[in-house]
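Co-fold these.
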Amino acid sequence: MPELPEVETVRRGLLPVLEGRRLERVIQRRPDLRFPMPEGFGQRLTGRTVDAVQRRAKFLMVRISGGDTLIWHLGMSGRVMIFPETPAPPPAAHDHVELLTDGGVTIRFNDARRFGFMDLVAAEDLASYPMLAHLGPEPLDDEFDGAVLAERLRGKNTPIKAALLDQRVVAGIGNIYASEALFRAGISPRRLARTVQGGRAVKLAAAIKAVLAAAIAAGGSTLRDHRQPNGELGYFQHAFEVYDRAGQACPNGVCNAVIRQIVQSGRSTFYCSRCQR
DNA sequence: ACGAGAACCTGTTTGC
DNA sequence: TGCAAACAGGTTCTCG
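Predicted complex below.
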């Protein structure tokens, strides 16, 4: 499901149809997603204006006039679709929530596995919101660099791959881009996180930025669920160097090795044992 | 306290 | 071919 680039792709798709618009109607087809939907969800949104559509880590943050923020997470299988026409086509299976704007646009949230959620949070409660409070730095911010990453990894006795999935270390990286960034940085996913310091941390921070930026430019990666809100597929999966490429030749071309697949913390990791140390 | 594994839920792919 | 097991982009809870 969606990692930072996919969520950012969704944000950019929502921007032109949601920012500055009034929410005319909210349809909620289930009482719960991953968590129970917030009390008075529809009423609290209806008639309000969307001031901004932002992102923090893998969370969409939709700022609502009056001070509430809609916190929206896509989980593993969450998908956002925009229908410019009125009325929108009949809902499909797992179309759980629908926002209708004064621009005549329908925005639909589809999430088969329901690991995603929506919550409405008042301004004064935002800073203490548990899922946001301990997030690490945004990897695409200018302040994020090798020194910041090294500091965050200091003393961590877990493999670097597992550390990159820890949202308190860096925010927004998931299972695909962890493998991809480590390959680009030439660092083994099995290396202990605390040994990624100095030059290695500089290379890894740069690789994280590069791979995330390239993925956003490609509209994210579509393995099965991800769609850009206009329905188009992302196409960064064609640029994967190691993810989902077990048994294929290492793209470096000079090592004569084959991409390996291992399991770390219950998740698949892909890497080249020659090029990554 | 920290890290690995299970759990949450449904759909799709893989393997016998 | 058919069925069951394994696996999937995330996060949190439990257990050692």
